[in-house]
Amino acid sequence: MNLFEIIEAIKENRIRISDHADAEAQVDNFTFNDIIETVIEGEIIEEYPTDKPYPSCLIFGKTSKGDPVHSVWGCNEKNNWVVLITVYRPDPERWINWRKRRRKDDPI
């Protein structure tokens, strides 16, 4: 799975949004357009090829206001649909530059 494939699936409306992602987006006041914008301008920062039921990845991007956003996307390789699994505002105490998970011994 790569970012281009995810973006193409979104553009072609081959997308499903999990109930969990919908609820998390509402909690963080993200619109669907905000999320899509962060994917198009974003980057894959972690990959989870063994996730079930689909391989997935974590994408980091920023909204037009500069707010950092993480979204997890799965890809159904049989039909080339993508699934927005979750979306959230990353915790600065858990991430370095929003891209790398902070270890317990990393300074904040």
Key descriptive features of the protein:
108 residues, YaeB-like fold, five-stranded mixed sheet, alpha+beta
Question: Can you walk me through this structure?
Answer:
- The strands form 2 sheets. A 5-stranded mixed sheet has the order 1-5-4-3-2. Strands 6-7 form a two-stranded antiparallel ribbon.
- By secondary structure, the chain is of the alpha+beta class.
- The model has no long low-confidence stretch (mean pLDDT 93).
- It has 3 helices and 7 strands.
- The chain is globular and about 45 Å long.
- The protein has one domain (3-90): 2-Layer Sandwich (YaeB-like fold).
Distance between the termini: 32 Å
Please bin the fraction of helical residues: 25-40%
Number of helices: 3
Largest sheet: 5 strands, mixed
Average pLDDT level: 93
Categorize the overall geometry: globular
Q: Supply the helix-strand structural class.
A: alpha+beta
Spans where pLDDT lies below 50 across 5 or more residues: none
Main sheet: which strands, in order across?
A: 1-5-4-3-2
Q: SSE string, helix = H, strand = E? A: HEHHEEEEEE
> In the CATH hierarchy, what is the architecture at level 2?
2-Layer Sandwich
What is the strand and helix layout of this fold?
Blueprint: H1 3-11, E1 15-17, H2 19-27, H3 32-40, E2 43-48, E3 56-62, E4 68-76, E5 81-88, E6 95-96, E7 100-101
Parallel strand pairs: 1-5
Antiparallel strand pairs: 2-3, 3-4, 4-5, 6-7
